[in-house]
Amino acid sequence: FNYKRKYIIEWGQKLIYPKSITKLENLERFESHIAKAFLSSINVNKKIHPEVQRLVHLYLKDYFESSGRININTDDASANKEIHISKNPICTYRLLRRVQTLLKDMVFHKQFCHNFGVECSNVAYYIMQYHWPKPEDLEMLAENILRIHNVYDLDAEQFTNGWISTAGTNCSLNSIHCYEISFMAIKTDQFTSAIQWLELAKEKTLVDKKTSMVFIEYLLWKVIEQHNMEYDESVKMELEPVFFDREINHIQNDFKNATKLRNLQYKAFKGSKERYHAYLNFQGVCSGDTFQTDKQKSHLFCCVVSYQEATNRIQGSNSSFHLSLTTSPCKHSNARHLEKKLEALTGLVVSGTAAETLSLLSYSVGAHLNPHFDKLSFMDLDKTPYNFRLASIMLYLSDVELGGATVFTSLGINAEPIKGSLLLWYNFFTDGSSDFDTFHGGCPVILGAKWAANKWVKYGTQLQHKCSLKRQERFQFAVNNVYLPMPSSSGEIPRRED
Ligand SMILES: O=C(O)CCC(=O)C(=O)O
Ligand SMILES: [Fe+2]
Fold first, then answer.
1. For 276-294, how does the pLDDT look when each residue is reduced to its tens digit (9 = 90+)?
2. Is any atom of ligand 1 closer than 6 Å to the C-beta of 31?
3. Is the pLDDT of residue 164 over 50?
4. Quick one: which atom of ligand 1 is closest to the CA of 392?
C-alpha cells in the first residue's frame, strides 16, 4: 500500500501540467468548485479580512474573465461541469497562471484560512495530490502558444482576443500575458515571434495600462537589434533560426511589411524530401496544404470496416503527450479482442511478441510530435531487423476540435484524427529497404485534446508476407484476408467499402 501511494505521488509530480490532459481537466474541475464556493461564501459572509477580500475578488474577476465561454452568467459558468478551459490554449494559460499566482497569494495570506476554512482545506487536499503549477508549467504553455501561432500562421490579434478559427471564447490575453509570451520567444531565440508579441503587448498596454510602455519599448528595441544582428542576406534560405526576410526598422509595426521566412522558405522547398526541410513541410501540411499529384493521391486507400468497441475502455489513462505506456503490456481483456480485429483488418500478426504492446499517446493543447520515422523502436535494446517495425497502426481514440492531424512531410498528406478510425502504413518496401516517404509527425492540437494508440508490428514473424526481389515495391493491405485492390496504371482504384 505504501509503495503504491508513493508511486502515485511521484507519478503525479513528474507529469507537468501542460503535458497532461487529465491533470489539466482535474485542475479545471477543482477550480470551478472552489470558485463557486468563494462566490457563495463571499455573498453570505461574515467578517472577511479586507486584504483577503481584495485577493478573492481579484481571483474571481480573473476566473470569470476567462472561463472559456462567450456568454458568461456567473452561475452557469461555475455550476457547469463541462470541460472548456483546458481545451483552449489561451484559457489554459490563464487558468495555470491564475492558480499559480492569484490563488497561491490568496491562500498564503495569514488570514485566509480563518475566513475560508472549508476552501482552505480543499485547496490543501488538492495540492497534496497534484502540487501547485510551477513557473516551468507556464513557460511550457507559452511555448505551446508560440508553436500554435507559428505552425498555423494564425492572426495574432484574433488569437489573443480569444478567437481561434470560428470558435470564440471570453479568454483573451492582456499586455502582461503577451509580454510573458514574448519573453519565452526571446528565451528560445525566436526573435521574429518575440517582435510580434512585444508589438502586441505594446498595443494592448495602450488600452489596459497593465505594463510599463517604456520597458516594453526598450525590450522591443533590444530584440529588433538582436534580430538585425543575426539577420544576413546570405542565410535567408537556411532554416534555423527563423527570421523575417530583411532587417526590421525601429518603427512601429515595421515587421508587418516583412515576409516571414517561414512562408518564403515553404514556397521554395515545398514537397522537398530532404530531412532538413521536413519541419517546413510539417508546418505547411499541418496548416491544411497538400502537395500530392492525383496519381499519388490514388494510392491512398480509404475503407470503412466494422470497428467499434475496442477503443472506448482505454480512454482516461493518465498518459501524457508522447509519454506512452509501452512498458506495461495491456492486460485488459479487450486487448486480445482489439488484436483480433487488427489482424483481420491488416492481415498481419499482432499478438504476443509479433508486435509491440499497445502504446497510448495524448496531446493536450499545443502539444505536437516532430517528424520522424517509426521503423526503429526506442524501447528495444536489440536493434536487429527482427524488431524493426514493419508496419505502424495508429488508432485514433478521440476526435480533435481543431489541429492534431498526422502529417507525412515528404508525401504532403494530412490525416485528420477521427475517433474510431485508424491509419496504417508500412515502413518498409517488400525488398526490405526503408520507405523514406513514411517520415511523419503529429501536428499541434489547437483546440481540444487528442488521444491515440500505436500498435507497431515487428518485422520478425510476418513471414507469411511475400518478400520481393523487385526494388521498392509496396506491400499490399489485406483486409479480412482480401488484398485491397491496388491502383491501376491509370492511377484509378476501385472504391471498396465493407
Ligand atoms: O500523433 C500522431 O499523429 C503521430 C504519432 C506518431 O507518429 C508516433 O507516436 O510515432
Ligand atoms: Fe510515428
1. 999 999 999 999 999 888 7
2. no
3. yes
4. 10
Residues contacting 38, CB < 8 A, separation 6+: 56, 59, 60, 116, 119
Going along the chain from its start, the domains and CATH numbers come out as: 2-135 (no CATH), 138-286 (1.25.40.10), 294-483 (2.60.120.620)
C-alpha cell recorded at residue 400: 480533435
Element (H, E) at 105: helix 104-107
Local structure of 392: helix, strand or coil: strand
360 lines ligand 1 (CB under 6 A): no
State the Cα–Cα distance between residues 373 and 94, nearest whole angstrom. 36
- Strands of 359-363's sheet, edge to edge? 359-363, 450-458, 389-396, 422-426
Read off the C-alpha cell for 378.
526506442
Q: Which band of pLDDT confidence, cut at 50, 70 and 90, is reported for residue 426?
A: very high
**Assigned C-alpha cell, 286:** 499541418
Closest ligand 1 atom to the C-alpha of 363? 1
Measured CA angle at 134 (ends 449, 85), to 5 deg: 30
Counting ligand 1 atoms within 8 A of each CB, the residue from 454, 455, 456, 457 with the most, and so the one to mutate, is 454
Distance 12 CA to ligand 1 centre (A): 24
| Whole-number Å distance between alpha carbons of 18 and 57 | 26
Torsion of CA 125, 126, 127, 128, to 10 degrees: 50
**Cα-flanking dihedrals φ and ψ of residue 413, to 5°?**
-110, 145
| Longest CA span, the chain | 85
pLDDT, tens digit (0-9, with 9 covering 90-100), for 122-153: 999 999 888 899 999 999 999 999 999 999 99
* Rounded Cα gap, residues 188 and 272, in angstroms: 26
d(CA 84, CA 91): 8
Q: What is the pLDDT averaged over residues 52-67?
A: 93
Cβ neighbours around 259 below 10 Å, total: 11
Residue with CA at minimum distance from ligand 1 atom 9: 454
The three-state secondary structure class of 441 is: strand
What are the tens digits of pLDDT across the range 188-199? 999 999 999 999
What distance in Å separates the CA atoms of residue 67 and residue 80, rounded to the nearest whole number? 11
> What are the cell numbers at 60?
474571481
